């Protein structure tokens, strides 16, 4: 997606540990006009999949998933990372290792919101080692629902998540793939 490449080149920063910082449009401030274009692109890519629900992870996936959901006309469900007293007792759980935080955490979705008849599109901001995606896929599996595809805004092609998911036969669509962040130089595939 050319607009996304331009946005990354104009606005992103590279942090230690091969972390791309996109706070000005995706992870802190949200550029809604731009996110609408991202939403339309996901709709074009998954138009034929009869998606019934979009699944993401709190916090950073929620904005992108919500904007995309308007084009699919389906609800968004976000897996919760934080245990709260008011979350339903009956949940599907999975463990996710966070590359950016360096620790494992539990994600949960109420059993009410993923049903066996659901055809699910996972949407997230980044794909690195696919830990978040695998956790969400585990929850879809436990619910007996069908994974239709995974839409990622920025795939870090130098980490192994993309290859792992494609080898599993997942319909993975990344709007851009970054092959290198060496010396603060952003190289696209
Ligand atoms: P994975 O689970 O695929 O290993 O990592 C994806 C998750 O880690 C994303 O949901 C995102 O929150 C975070 N992440 C991984 N790499 C980056 C990065 O370079 N920049 C930012 N902002 N987040 C990242």
Give a short synopsis of this structure.
Converts the preformed base xanthine, a product of nucleic acid breakdown, to xanthosine 5'-monophosphate (XMP), so it can be reused for RNA or DNA synthesis. This is Xanthine phosphoribosyltransferase. Helix content is 33%, strand content 33%.
Task: Describe this protein with a few key phrases.
189 residues; alpha/beta; Rossmann fold; six-stranded mixed beta sheet; two-stranded antiparallel sheet; 6 helices; 10 strands; 33% helix; 33% strand; globular; binds guanosine-5'-monophosphate
Secondary structure topology:
Blueprint: H1 2-11, E1 13-15, E2 19-21, H2 23-27, H3 32-45, E3 53-57, H4 60-72, E4 76-79, E5 91-98, E6 103-110, E7 119-127, H5 131-143, E8 146-156, H6 161-167, E9 172-180, E10 187-188
Parallel strand pairs: 3-4, 3-7, 7-8, 8-9
Antiparallel strand pairs: 1-2, 5-6, 9-10
The structure holds guanosine-5'-monophosphate.
Describe this structure in words.
- With 189 residues, the protein is of the alpha/beta class.
- The chain has a single domain (2-188), classed as 3-Layer(aba) Sandwich (Rossmann fold), CATH 3.40.50.
- Helices cover 33% and strands 33% of the residues.
- The protein has helices spanning 2-11, 23-27, 32-45, 60-72, 131-143, 161-167, and strands at residues 13-15, 19-21, 53-57, 76-79, 91-98, 103-110, 119-127, 146-156, 172-180, 187-188.
- The strands form 3 sheets. Strands 4-3-7-8-9-10 form a 6-stranded mixed β-sheet, with helices on both faces. Strands 1-2 form a two-stranded antiparallel sheet.
- The chain is globular.
- The model has no long low-confidence stretch (mean pLDDT 95).
- The structure holds guanosine-5'-monophosphate.
- Guanosine-5'-monophosphate (5GP) is lined by residues 19-20, 22, 27, 60, 99-100, 124-133, 156, 161.
